[in-house]
Amino acid sequence: MVVLSKPAIEQCSFIRNCIPTTTTFYTGIPIIDLSKPDSKNLIVKACEDFGFFKVINHGVPRQFITNLESEAIKFFSLPLSEKEKAGPPTPMGYGNKSIGPNGDIGWVEYLLLTTNPDSCSHKFLSVLGENPEMFRSALNDYILAVKEMTCEVLELMADGLKIPTSNVFSKLLKDEKSDSVFRLNHYPPCPDFQALEDSNMVGFGEHTDPQIISVLRSNNASGLQISLRNGNWISVPPDQDSFFFLVGDSLQVMTNGRFQSVRHRVLTNSLKSRVSMIYFGGPPLSEKITPLPALMKGETSLYKEFTWLEYKTSAYNTKLADNRLGHFERI
Ligand code: GA4
Questions:
Q1: pLDDT at 296
Q2: How far is CA 105 from the centre of its chain?
Q3: Fold annotation for 27-317
Q4: 52 DSSP 8-state letter
Q5: Would strands 52-56 and 31-33 be described as parallel, antiparallel, or unpaired?
Q6: What is the pLDDT of residues 213-260, one digit of tens each?
Q7: How far is CA 274 from the centre of its chain?
Q8: Where are the domains positioned within the chain?
Q9: CA-312 nearest atom, ligand 1
Q10: How far is the CA of 93 from the centre of ligand 1 (A)?
């Protein structure tokens, strides 16, 4: 019997994995142009079909984005011992490989901050790199502008859903007690692929976000994948000039399942360093997360009643890949 062997290069996983593989990018991601009048209906359709969309003509000044990106790069280039002064992430602060409190790991380092400038997580800013003031001002400019754009999108979403009060979602992010979070991620390039392969390590493992909405911007390095409704994973073409919106678990509940939170992950298959910045829009801790009456039309709620604090507390007791809403479904 003749055994056909693989070409030598394919047998060597280190070499195979270090060769830039040609990622097949998905071309069907909904694009929302905020300057177009039909965007509200397209936002609703994108949330129903994907729980995910890309926003262009967003109005966030490019300078705010590039300033924060360069501050982030400066910070992540510091020696580990310096970065660790801003850690551990319990839950805010600098983290390296370890994600959350329940043993998840990823090929990533990150900074987690609350978005309120007066809140305690800004205590880290005094240890953030060589010029903490510059970092602080870049963060504040970026977060303010992205929050404003996010609220505009959430108001269009409410209009598209024909909810009479168009600020039902945005008021939760605008509330001074809003429990929103900001995350800077750095995925280092071409590490020891053999070790990663042996440990099955990805950049950031699959999960859904617990909040209402997540707004992600990355540099031009690939890696982000989302799961389609049929369970297939697709690679999102990177686009450093746009924002990607992800439906979170809380929005799923508020729409009684009409929108579903999107499972996503980040792979480590790039030779380029990936830097992403994500704004997680969350409600105040005391807010009841429940389907909006305007969307119910005689339906009953698919979920038990809970506050954001209860959901968040339960989420921090789960592993990244768990179905966190499962505990809160009515049977
Ligand atoms: C996912 C969304 C945000 O990144 C995050 C994450 C948080 C963390 O990294 O500490 C969690 C994760 C996220 C969900 C379940 C818990 C908490 C890690 C984890 C295992 C900051 C958030 O709010 O929830």
A1: 94
A2: 16
A3: Jelly Rolls (2.60.120)
A4: E
A5: parallel
A6: 999 999 999 999 999 999 999 999 999 999 999 999 999 999 999 999
A7: 14
A8: 27-317
A9: 23
A10: 13
* Predicted local distance difference test score (pLDDT) of residue 8: 35
Interface predicted TM-score (ipTM) of this complex, two decimals: 0.99
5 pLDDT more than 80: no
pLDDT in tens, 194-205: 777 767 679 999
Look up the pTM and report it.
0.92
Residue among 99, 105, 311 to mutate when testing ligand 1 (max atoms within 8 A of CB): 99
Between the CA of 230 and the centroid of ligand 1 the distance, in Å, is 24
pLDDT at 44: 98
Q: Give, using CA atoms, the residue closest to atom 3 of ligand 1.
A: 209
**Tokens 């950049």, located at residue:** 203
Q: What residues contact 56, with CB distance under 8 A and at least 6 apart?
A: 31, 32, 33, 34, 241, 242
Catalytic residue list contains 274 = yes
Name the burial class of residue 143, with classes exposed (0-12), middle (13-18) and buried (19+) by CB atoms within 10 angstroms of its CB. buried
> What is the number of the ligand 1 atom nearest to the C-alpha of 102?
20
Residue 122 CA: distances (Å) to CA of 113, 147, 149, 283, 313: 7, 18, 23, 19, 22
Measured from CB, residues less than 6 Å from any atom of ligand 1 are 91, 99-100, 102, 104, 112, 181, 183, 207, 209-210, 280, 315-316, 318-320
**Closest of 213, 207, 201 to residue 225, by C-alpha:** 207
Q: Which two tokens stand for residue 225?
A: 């994948």
Q: Give the E-state strand segments of 100-212 in sequence order.
A: 104-114, 181-187, 204-207
**Do residues 107 and 201 touch, judged by C-beta distance below 8 A?**
yes
d(C-alpha 100, C-alpha 47), whole Å: 27
Q: Whose CA is nearest to atom 6 of ligand 1?
A: 100
User: Token digits for 19?
Assistant: 């060769």
CA-closest residue to ligand 1 atom 13: 209
| Interval between CA 218 and ligand 1 midpoint (Å) | 18
